[in-house]
Design a protein that fits this description.
single chain; alpha+beta; 5-stranded antiparallel sheet; 2 helices
């Protein structure tokens, strides 16, 4: 039976750098690959950009996924609202 490391792989990769004069910009991304006997999937997420000058890294600019942040906030808000509604519905009424 194969181990979990052969089924699930998380790696960080760099794309081909873009050069402008002595400035070099290299995009980075994280890849989650899940391989199953009947198929699998790959999730590719950009994580940042590395800026180099003269062969030295001068800055790493992270890429924030605003869409994912909004989606998670929406799910959390829905869970909280559902919990509040359930608590309000189960409270004894004063009639």
């Amino acid at each position: 039976m194969p181990g979990i490391s052969s089924l699930v792989q998380l790696t960080t990769v760099r794309a081909r750098p873009i050069t402008a004069g002595d400035l070099r910009v290299t995009p980075e991304s994280r890849i989650l690959a899940v391989r199953l006997p009947f198929g699998g999937f790959v999730w590719h997420q950009p994580t940042g950009v590395v800026v180099e000058r003269g062969g030295r890294t001068i800055q790493r600019l992270p890429i924030r996924d605003l869409t994912r942040i909004v989606q998670i906030a929406g799910v959390l808000a829905t869970l909280v609202l559902t919990l509040v509604c359930l608590l309000a519905a189960s409270a004894p009424s004063e009639a």
